[in-house]
C-alpha cells in the first residue's frame, strides 16, 4: 500500500509517496524501546530510593549554559521537588509511551528532560567526541514520536481519540497520539 | 495543508536552522578550519575548539526554544487540522 503524504517545505510542495506496510510496526517498536528506556530509568531510581539529584542540578550543572536555571533547583524545596519529579516523570513518560497513552504529552516531557541531560552531560565532558550524543538523539526521537502521534497504533490513544470528550475538545489531540 | 504564518515560520525554520547551524554547520567549520584533535596518551581525543562550546550550546538551545515556542503556541491558539482519526 502506498500513501501520498501531502506536505510543504519552505513554501514548496514536497509531497511524497510512502510505502507504509512497515510503518505501524516501526512506530510500535520505537515507542516500546524508548518507553522502556525511560520506564527503566524511573523505576531504577524508585527501587534505589532515596534519589538525590543534587550532584546533577547543583554540581554538574553550575558551569553550563543551563546553570542559571537548573541551580535554582539545587537545594531546599525545589531540590525535593526535583528528586521526586525526575523519577516520577521518567516513569510516567515510559508508561505513557509503552501503553500509548497521552503519547504526545509524554514525548514532549521526554524531550524536555532530554534537553537538560543533553546540555549538562555534554558541557561537562559528554561532547568530547562531538555535540551529537545519545542524549540529543533521544531528544530527536521524542520529537519524532510526538510529530507522528505514535500512540494511535496499538495504543490507548487510539481509543481516547474516539471518545466524545476528545471529539468535543479537539485541542486535546495535541496531547494524545 | 494550511500556509504557515510568519511566527510559525520563525519558530519552525528559525529553530531548525539554529539547531543545524549549531550541530552540522559549526561541526563542519571545526573539521575544515578547526584545531587538530591530537590523541592523548590515555587515548582521549584532545579538543581545542575553534568555536567555543558555549556558543554552540546557546545556538542549539535557542533553536530548541524556538521549536518549543512554536509547539506551545500551536497548542494554545488553534485546534488540529484533521480530527477524523
UniProtKB/TrEMBL annotation, chain A:
Record localization: Membrane
Domain of life, per lineage: Archaea
Transmembrane helix is among the record's keywords: yes
InterPro entries per record: DoxX (IPR032808)
UniProt keyword list: Membrane, Transmembrane, Transmembrane helix
GO CC field: membrane
Segment forming the signal sequence: none
Membrane topology of the entry: Multi-pass membrane protein
Principal subcellular localisation of the protein: membrane
Transmembrane segments: 23-43, 93-120, 140-161
Protein name: Quinol oxidase
Organism listed in the record: Halorubrum ezzemoulense DSM 17463
Record lineage: Archaea, Methanobacteriati, Methanobacteriota, Stenosarchaea group, Halobacteria
Automatic annotation (TrEMBL), chain B:
Transmembrane spans: 12-35, 55-76
The keyword Membrane is assigned to this record: yes
Record key words, sorted: Membrane, Transmembrane, Transmembrane helix
Name under which the protein is recorded: Uncharacterized protein
Naturally occurring in which organism (per UniProt): Halorubrum ezzemoulense
Amino acid at each position: 500500500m502506498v500513501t501520498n503524504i501531502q506536505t510543504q517545505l519552505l513554501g514548496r510542495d514536497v509531497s511524497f509517496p510512502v510505502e507504509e506496510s512497515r510503518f505501524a510496526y516501526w512506530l510500535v517498536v520505537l515507542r516500546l524501546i524508548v518507553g522502556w528506556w525511560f520506564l527503566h530509568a524511573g523505576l531504577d531510581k524508585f527501587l534505589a530510593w532515596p534519589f538525590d539529584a543534587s550532584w546533577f542540578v547543583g554540581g554538574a550543572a553550575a558551569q553550563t549554559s543551563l546553570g542559571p536555571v537548573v541551580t535554582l533547583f539545587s537545594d531546599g524545596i525545589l531540590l525535593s521537588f526535583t528528586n521526586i519529579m525526575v523519577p516520577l516523570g521518567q516513569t510516567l513518560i515510559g508508561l505513557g509511551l509503552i501503553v500509548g497513552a497521552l503519547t504526545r504529552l509524554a514525548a514532549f516531557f521526554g524531550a524536555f528532560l532530554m534537553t537538560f541531560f543533553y546540555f549538562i552531560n555534554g558541557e561537562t565532558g559528554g561532547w568530547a567526541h562531538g555535540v551529537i550524543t545519545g542524549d540529543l538523539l533521544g531528544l530527536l526521537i521524542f520529537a519524532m514520536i510526538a510529530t507522528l502521534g505514535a500512540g494511535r497504533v496499538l495504543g490507548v490513544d487510539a481509543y481516547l481519540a474516539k471518545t466524545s470528550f476528545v471529539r468535543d475538545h479537539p485541542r486535546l489531540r495535541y496531547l494524545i497520539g | 495543508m494550511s500556509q504557515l504564518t510568519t511566527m510559525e515560520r520563525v519558530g519552525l525554520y528559525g529553530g531548525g536552522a539554529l539547531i543545524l547551524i549549531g550541530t552540522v554547520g559549526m561541526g563542519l567549520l571545526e573539521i575544515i578550519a578547526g584545531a587538530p584533535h591530537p590523541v592523548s596518551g590515555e587515548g582521549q581525543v584532545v579538543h581545542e575548539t575553534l568555536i567555543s562550546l558555549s556558543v554552540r550550546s546557546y545556538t542549539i538551545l535557542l533553536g530548541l526554544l524556538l521549536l518549543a515556542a512554536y509547539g506551545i503556541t500551536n497548542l494554545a491558539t488553534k485546534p488540529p487540522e484533521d480530527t477524523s482519526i
